[in-house]
């Protein structure tokens, strides 16, 4: 927890988080950018999830799937969704 600065927007990836679609993910990223935060931080939990401190610190919590994903797969899915979100925000044609 000592590595997370107070001016960072923290998104906790959690199986109990909000179920978001691609457009909602893009909005979340856009809103975080407009909030004045210095950076956007996504936290992927380990096999036992996240600790109490991170749960209390997170600005929001989302899930990438209704399936439970190991952290390696979650990272791949997150990277694709970040790319998709940026294309939505820029109005590009990747997302249909």
From TrEMBL:
GO terms for biological process: methylation; rRNA processing. Transmembrane segments: none annotated. Pfam families: SPOUT_MTase. Belongs to the RNA methyltransferase RlmH family. Keywords: Methyltransferase, S-adenosyl-L-methionine, Transferase. GO terms for molecular function: methyltransferase activity. This is Methyltransferase.
